[in-house]
Design brief:
There is one protein chain. The radius of gyration is 29 Å and the shape is elongated. A 14-stranded antiparallel sheet has the order 1-2-3-6-7-8-9-10-13-14-15-16-17-18. A two-stranded antiparallel sheet has the order 4-5. It has a two-stranded antiparallel sheet with strand order 11-12. β14 and β15 form a beta hairpin. The protein contains four helices and 18 strands. The protein has a domain at about 1-40. By secondary structure, it is an alpha+beta fold. The longest helix is centred in the first third of the chain and has 36 residues, at about 1-35.
């Protein structure tokens, strides 16, 4: 009897291990079978494509949708945004948008998302928190390429990389607040024709914008510095832009600009002399200009110093 008991003990242990292993394999097989036979990805993809197809005034399409399960999330690939959405000329092409659920937020109270937007040239990271009546969004990109921005600018084109930080609070139907910082140390405006004007190549280099949203549509320009002592154009700009959310280029301007043009720029862009009176520049060669009108049709007044 004693020998028989010694034999049974290890057999019981092996049987218990097998029992738990069988449960684990059965559970995994059930999950795999559910996911493979009930294509949740396909159903979500078809539903999203059907909803996007209804947006005729702003067509958006994508090729493929994938779900992630370890860190729950969704990934959209090969996205195309029609120029009708932003009054541009070319489609905005995005390689992927990946969004995953983050830790719960306490301000506002609700879920949070971590989103990464990628195209061929840039990565944009978005952290957002979502409450019942309020949403907070932080957008960052340490190397935002001009090639990602140019489709949004219409006729104007730029070259360079930007450092972007934007923090915003959104209500149920509107933008409640916005803090925007945008910097570059290698900005260039290539030679091009804008509104029938032939613009020479402008090696601006330095660009620094600090602004905030004063109310639902009034963008307050706290500081906008363009160029340095080596640049063909140097400017310090402050003022307000009344944003037109339906067409950014029709946003209204109220800006005060202190600007200086290099002799080389004035020679290569001689038409500038028709708009400026050299008698109104200060002792260091700077002009003070008030700019009104809209982004696509600005009007200026040179102030006597």
């Amino acid at each position: 009897m004693q020998g028989h008991a010694e034999i049974e003990k290890p057999i019981y242990k092996i049987g218990l291990n097998h029992y738990f292993l069988l449960i684990l394999l059965s559970s995994l097989a059930l999950i795999y079978g559910f996911v493979s036979n009930f294509s949740l990805e396909k159903k979500i993809e078809d539903t999203l494509k059907a909803q996007l197809a209804k947006m005729r005034s702003c067509p958006v399409s994508f090729e493929k949708l994938n779900l992630t399960y370890l860190v729950p999330g969704i990934n959209l690939n090969d996205i195309s945004v029609s120029p009708r959405c932003y009054k541009g000329q070319d489609d905005l092409i995005i390689n992927s948008v990946q969004s995953n659920i983050g830790f719960p937020s306490f301000s506002p109270i609700g879920p949070s998302l971590n989103t990464v937007i990628k195209d061929k040239f840039s990565n944009i990271n978005i952290k957002s928190a979502h409450g019942l009546t309020e949403h907070k969004v932080r957008i960052e990109s340490r190397k935002l390429s001009s090639q990602s921005i140019n489709p949004l600018l219409g006729l104007a084109q730029i070259k360079g990389n930007f450092d972007l930080t934007a923090v915003s609070t959104l209500g149920a139907r509107d933008l409640k607040s916005l803090q925007l910082n945008l910097k570059s140390n290698n900005l260039t405006i290539p030679a091009q024709n804008i509104n029938s004007f032939s613009i020479p190549n402008l090696d601006i280099r330095n660009f620094s914008l600090i602004s905030n949203l004063a109310n639902k549509s009034m963008l307050n320009i706290k500081k906008l510095i363009i160029g340095d002592e080596r640049s063909p154009v140097r400017a310090n700009i402050k003022g307000k832009i009344n944003l037109n959310m339906k067409s950014i280029i029709r946003s209204k301007l109220d800006l005060n600009i202190v600007v200086k043009f290099s002799e080389q720029f004035q020679e290569s862009f001689g038409i500038i002399s028709l708009f400026l009176d050299s008698n109104k520049q200060d002792e260091n060669g700077f002009y003070t200009i008030n700019v009104t009108g809209t982004l696509n049709k600005p009007k200026h007044t040179v102030i006597q110093k």
